[in-house]
Amino acid sequence: MSTAAVRERDGVARVRERRHRARRRERTVTAALAAVLLALAALALTVGGFPVPPADVAAALLGRGDGLGRFVVLELRLPRLATGVLVGAAFGVAGALFQSVLGNPLASPDILGISWGASAAAVYALLVLGLGALWVSAAAVLGAVGVAAAIYLLAWRDGVTGNRFVLIGIGAAFMANSALGYMLTRSDVREAQAALVWMVGSVGSSRWHEIALLAAAMAVLLPVAGLGAARLRALQLGDDLATGLGVPAEAARRALLAAAVGLAAVGTAAAGPIAFVAFVAAPIARRLTRTGGLALVPAALTGAVVVAASDLVALHLLPGDVQLPVGVVTGAIGAPYLLWLLATSGRGAA
């Protein structure tokens, strides 16, 4: 065997070994995040003003147990936990798709104004049209889709580039926030209280039929996102090379953005714009896996862990027995990260 052939064989072996290590690390990180999420779920179901022992929680989940403990677990705590986990996963995957497709770490539904568009539409349906909960959630989905479509059309110049999309999205976020503020100034105190969830995000008011709708929507959107991940790898090689590999670049980008918008929309419709979850989940997942890839499953688990942990903090760990919506806590976590990102983003180029 020639020297060149030996080098080529060794190079292929090294690439395979790196890929094997990366997959093994991603599986390990995924298992660790799942274990953390299970631990948080156990805490969320047991602790509170009415403590429920783990054995009673298990009995309630299996359809047994006494009446009061079963009611607390199944009707009060489990819906809150399920909403937080599903919404966190939806925001985590949505943020990963936006940031990877647009190639910009600032690209997330809340920074781009898509979540705020959903909130503005929901508050309009609630305060101006006086609609019920289900129609308000439907208005939130339409608001998110409408804002995303407007951003896409305004950013279109023979294709969509990340920076233009992000800048137009930030402008859309300011416009949606202004509309929210105006509607709140025109409402009375009781109406403003009802609209609060659409400004800060809360997982405490969902019911089982709403959770079932959220789960059904995610069961459709998450496989679409997973199928698009392979095309994203081609897109990251550049539009010309992706087209040469048989991947229509703009159509693939549009499909991935549509899946991300759908996940952000259904998440916001279920719990409001829980701030910064989509923004921080994917970077945390990528740092843990160290693959540099999309890492959709770790991003989804990271989003679920962030929301579940933040909700525990919001309910049980604040001084003075104060209880806040979970969006207040995630905002306190995400805002310093945004400031750090903005402060350090130019150092590499300097």
Residues in helices, as a percent range:
over 70%
Class per helix and strand makeup? mainly alpha
Q: Could you state the order of secondary-structure elements as H and E?
A: HHHHHHHHHHHHHHH
Average pLDDT over all residues: 86
Please give the radius of gyration in angstroms: 22 Å
Strand content: under 5%
What's the number of helices?
A: 15
The first-to-last residue Cα distance is 48 Å
Give the beta-strand count.
0
Q: What's the overall geometry?
A: globular
Described by strand count, sense and barrel closure, the largest sheet is: none
As residue ranges, the low-confidence spans are none
Question: How would you describe what is shown here?
Answer:
The protein has 350 residues and is mainly α. 79% of the residues lie in helices and 0% in strands. Helix 3 packs antiparallel against helix 12 (249-271) and helix 5 packs across helix 6. The mean pLDDT is 86.
Describe the protein's topology.
Blueprint: H1 3-46, H2 54-61, H3 67-102, H4 109-112, H5 114-128, H6 133-155, H7 162-185, H8 189-195, H9 197-200, H10 208-235, H11 239-244, H12 249-271, H13 277-289, H14 296-317, H15 326-344
Would you kindly provide a brief summary of this structure?
The protein has 350 residues and is mainly α. 79% of the residues lie in helices and 0% in strands.
List keywords for this structure.
single chain; 350 residues; mainly alpha; 15 helices; 79% helix; 0% strand
